[in-house]
Amino acid sequence: MHPMLAVTDEVATALAEGRPVVALESTIISHGMPYPQNVEMAVEVEGIVRSLGAVPATIAVLGGRPRIGLSPDDLELLASHPDVTKVSVRDLPYVVARGVHGATTVASTMRLAALAGIRVFVTGGLGGVHRGAQTSFDVSADLTELGQTDVAVVCAGVKSILDIGLTLETLETLGVPVVGFGSDEFPSFFSRSSGHAAPMRVDSAADVAAMMRAKWDLGLAGGIVVANPIPAEDEIPADEIGLIIDQALADLDRLGIHGKDATPYLLGRIVELTDGASLVANIALVRNNARLGAAIAGEFAGGVP
Ligand code: PSU
Ligand code: MN
């Protein structure tokens, strides 16, 4: 194991025995949802993964130490502490060297998961190409990381706070397979539809695991995006959430918020503008992704014991 990582016994043992492990990110806890729903979600999702025979490994940097697997107290700290930095890959050296707390994004969680030998990661939504990136250059490092780090990421697609078409184009350029899980359409987080076709479709966890093996056995570096549509009973119709997102984007512009603060601001504003309905949908889709991620990890490890 990499000497700079602090890995819990539960995760280390599962990895050593070749049992299924699912990585989980922490920016979704610290900067993606309000307290206390954030910590309730984090605890519940770990429970779902465990109940399906896999070991959850929530990843963060605490006191400068990259941690693979967290305690309930650690989750509470990430959910409620005022000084937790949002950490993408470029921020890792700073938080480690300074000995501070950091919540990891998709990009940095992928990198730390891969360092620990974890190949399946569950989250809610990916970062991507922001609307207006033609002038702002705001393209999430999540995409760069997917182009180079060998982890399959289960998500519910990307929100239309981003330019979904340009995000899919960029993933193609980076050589990242994007599969619609049980869907011909790429989902848009709150909604099952996006108006964009999924570049590929896969219908079972076993077939996702087979693609992971094929990709990495061919020496093709980088991730796979498994886009798992939100369950129909939990979705918010695209036209309804579209108006809210347009309002949130207008508020972002008006306030001049940009860079790493843009995504957390938009997520929080959407929760406000929907009176919490977006949060309910967000939690439902993460649960759904946790179930699929546990199944994929089980298949990739050779079947849930
Ligand atoms: N999208 C969501 N919820 C989230 C994020 C994105 O619906 O919590 C978080 C993830 O951690 C993602 C990060 O990796 O935002 C992307 O931030 P940025 O656009 O600054 O790279
Ligand atoms: Mn950005």
Automatic annotation (TrEMBL):
SUPFAM superfamilies: Indigoidine synthase A-like. Substrate binds at residues 86, 106, 140-142. Binds 1 Mn(2+) ion per subunit. The active site is at residues 25, 159. Keywords: Glycosidase, Hydrolase, Lyase, Manganese, Metal-binding. It catalyses: D-ribose 5-phosphate + uracil = psi-UMP + H2O. The keyword Hydrolase applies. GO terms for molecular function: hydrolase activity, acting on glycosyl bonds; metal ion binding; pseudouridylate synthase activity. Homotrimer. This is Pseudouridine-5'-phosphate glycosidase. The lineage of its organism: Bacteria, Bacillati, Actinomycetota, Actinomycetes, Propionibacteriales.
